Automatic annotation (TrEMBL):
InterPro entries in the record: ARM-type_fold, Nmd2/UPF2
Gene3D superfamilies linked: 1.25.40.180
GO biological process: nuclear-transcribed mRNA catabolic process, nonsense-mediated decay
Feature: compositional bias, Basic and acidic residues: 47-188
GO annotations of cellular component type: cytoplasm; exon-exon junction complex
Residue span of region Disordered: 47-201
Record-given protein name: Uncharacterized protein
Recorded superkingdom: Eukaryota
PANTHER family in UniProt: NONSENSE-MEDIATED MRNA DECAY PROTEIN 2 UP-FRAMESHIFT SUPPRESSOR 2 (PTHR12839), REGULATOR OF NONSENSE TRANSCRIPTS 2 (PTHR12839:SF7)
C-alpha cells in the first residue's frame, strides 16, 4: 500500500513539473510578443492571431491543469490527513474490538469459574451426602449390633439367672433334705442313746478340770451357730458328769436366735447321748 502511494505521488509530481514548464514557455512567448509589438509600434494581423491562439492555448492548458488537479483522487497535501484519519479510525475500531475481546475473555473466565465452582459445590454436596449416608448406615449398623449384643447379653443373663435360681433351688432342696436326714439320724441316735452310752472307764480318760468345765458351762449361756464346732470340740474332751445340772441351767438361760437353735439342739443331743442324768 505504501509503495503504491509513493508511485502515484511520483507520477503526479512529474505531471505538475511538465505543466509548469509548458506554462513558463507560454509566458515567455507572450512577453516576447508584447516587447516586439511595443518596439515596432504596429502589430500584424497574423501576429495578433498568433497571440490570440497562444492565449487560447494558455487558457486550455490552465483548464486542463485545473481539470487534472480536480480529477486526482487525493492531493499531496490531503493524502496524509486522510491517512491519519484512516489510522485513527482503524485505531478507534481496533480499541473497541480489543475491549470486546477482553470483555468476552473475562466473561468466559467468569463463566468457567462459576461453572467450576458449581461443579465443585456439586461434588462437595455429593460427597457430604455420601458421607452422611455412610455415617447413618454405620450408626444404624452400630445400633443394630448394639441391640443384638444387648439381646444376647439379656438372654445370657436370663439364662444365668435361671441357672442360678435352679442351682439355688437345688441347693436349698439339698440343704433341706440334708437337714431332714440329720434330724432323722439325730432322732434315731437320741432314741437309741440308752443302749449306746459309754462305760464308766470312758469318763476317766476325759478332763475333769474344774476350771475348764466351769468355763464351758458359762459358754453355754451364749450359744451361737458360729460356736458350734468349738463347743463340740470342748464337749468331747471334758468330763461333765458333775456339771449336768449347771449345764442344763445355762442352756435354759441362753437367749437363742432362730439361727442358733440348731446348735442348741446339737449340744443337747450330745449331752443326752453321753449322760443319762441330762
Amino acid at each position: 500500500m505504501s509503495n503504491l502511494c509513493s508511485d502515484q505521488l511520483r507520477i503526479e509530481y512529474g505531471w505538475a513539473v511538465k505543466v509548469t514548464l509548458i506554462r513558463q514557455q507560454q509566458v515567455n512567448g507572450i512577453y516576447f510578443a508584447v516587447i516586439l509589438q511595443t518596439c515596432l509600434g504596429n502589430t500584424m494581423p497574423a501576429e495578433r492571431k498568433k497571440s490570440a491562439n497562444m492565449d487560447e492555448k494558455e487558457s486550455l492548458l490552465n483548464n486542463k491543469e485545473k481539470e487534472f488537479v480536480e480529477r486526482r483522487p487525493v492531493s499531496t497535501r490531503e493524502k496524509p490527513k486522510d491517512d491519519v484519519k484512516v489510522g485513527v479510525k482503524r485505531e478507534t475500531v481496533k480499541v473497541p474490538e480489543d475491549k470486546k475481546k477482553k470483555l468476552d475473555e473475562d466473561k468466559r473466565k467468569k463463566e468457567d469459574k462459576e461453572r467450576k465452582k458449581k461443579e465443585e459445590d456439586k461434588v462437595k454436596a455429593e460427597e457430604e451426602q455420601k458421607k452422611k449416608e455412610e455415617e447413618e448406615k454405620k450408626k444404624h449398623e452400630e445400633e443394630e449390633k448394639k441391640k443384638q449384643e444387648e439381646e444376647v447379653k439379656r438372654q445370657q443373663e436370663e439364662a444365668a439367672a435361671q441357672l442360678k435360681e435352679k442351682e439355688e433351688a437345688h441347693q436349698l432342696h439339698q440343704e433341706a433334705w440334708e437337714r431332714h436326714q440329720a434330724r432323722k439320724e439325730l432322732r434315731s441316735k437320741n432314741q437309741n442313746a440308752p443302749d449306746n452310752r459309754p462305760e464308766e472307764n470312758f469318763f476317766s480318760r476325759l478332763d475333769s478340770s474344774l476350771k475348764k468345765n466351769t468355763a464351758f458351762v458359762k459358754k453355754l449361756k451364749t450359744i451361737t451357730e458360729q460356736q458350734r464346732d468349738s463347743l463340740s470340740h470342748d464337749f468331747n474332751s471334758l468330763n461333765l458328769s458333775k456339771y449336768i445340772a449347771e449345764a442344763v441351767a445355762s442352756i435354759v438361760e441362753a437367749k437363742l436366735k432362730i439361727s442358733d437353735v440348731n446348735c442348741a439342739v446339737h449340744l443337747c443331743s450330745l449331752f443326752h447321748q453321753r449322760y443319762a442324768d441330762f
